[in-house]
Amino acid sequence: MIRFYFHPTPNPAKIALFLEETGLPYEMVPIDTSKGEQHTPQFRAINPNGKVPAIVDTDGPGGKEARVFDSTAILLYLAEKTGKLQGAPQDRPELLSWLLFLASGLGPFSGQAVHFQFAAPEGLDYAVNRYRREAERHYQVLNDHLEGRTYIVGETYTIADISAWGWLDRASRVLKGADDPLGSFPNLKRLFETVDARPAAARARAIGKDHEFKKVNDEETRRALFPSNYPLVA
Q1: Cα separation of 30 and 222, whole Å?
Q2: Domain layout of the chain by residue ranges
Q3: For residues 70 and 47, what is the distance between their CA atoms, to the nearest angstrom?
Q4: What architecture is the 2-85+203-229 domain classified under in CATH?
């Protein structure tokens, strides 16, 4: 059984989609990051970095319980565990390359673009421009790669496509103010729509709907989400 620590944000959404695609048994454990539940000692024992998603596999390697954190690590772990959505063996180098491109580039720059456009104080125009333009650049790299391709790696749907879907779903926030945020990236838009049309995507979106996550953006939320902005005072 997989215990899946979840909040309805882009990185956990990737794991939700994988689990729904494969039918792997799991239990969703809500972690309300707006309330700071990611900083409790109990959760930090699972992910010392205090981020979602994380999983605990009660039937890990050798039959021992295993923790895995970071969405890319979880996708790789679960793909290897199930033997699914890994692509062809000869495509492994490409799969790793694009997964890490998404993990170290498209995802973080998208997240920072959202932060500086929606959460940061006014007047940080350099930062807003920097992260917005870098997010667009990563979109363009992937869009160019997808020319003439259906999927990111090889000929089949893989965890690379799942990883891209998680953040592309938030393109309207990453590219704030754009009427059609993926319109300038037609290959990327086609990939997103292809993945989003899968039945498992609708099931993944439904995860957590029966839990009341905090939606108010107050001081508690800001301290929980951005603790480094509030250094401890002796």
Answers
A1: 19
A2: 2-85+203-229, 89-197
A3: 8
A4: 3-Layer(aba) Sandwich (3.40)
pLDDT tens profile 88-115: 999 999 999 999 999 999 999 999 999 9
* Structure confidence by residue, pLDDT tens digits, 129-178: 999 999 999 999 999 999 999 999 999 999 999 999 999 999 999 999 99
Burial of 232 (0-12, 13-18, 19+ CB in 10 A): exposed
Residue with tokens 């000929």: 155
If DSSP codes are grouped into helix, strand and coil, which group holds residue 232?
Answer: coil
* Rounded Cα–Cα distance for residues 191 and 46 (Å): 33
How many CA atoms are closer than 13 Å to the CA of 205, on its beta-carbon side?
A: 11
Token representation of residue 147: 């020319």
pLDDT per position as a tens digit, 71-82 = 999 999 999 999
Strand order in the sheet with 66-69: 26-30, 2-6, 54-57, 66-69
Cα–Cα dist 200/146, whole Å = 22
Which CATH code of 1.20.1050.10, 1.20.120.1630, 1.25.40.10, 3.90.550.10 fits the domain covering 89-197? 1.20.1050.10
Strand blocks (E) in 169-220: none
0.85 exceeded by pTM = yes
**Kindly report the CA angle at 54 between 51 and 59, in degrees rounded to 5?**
160
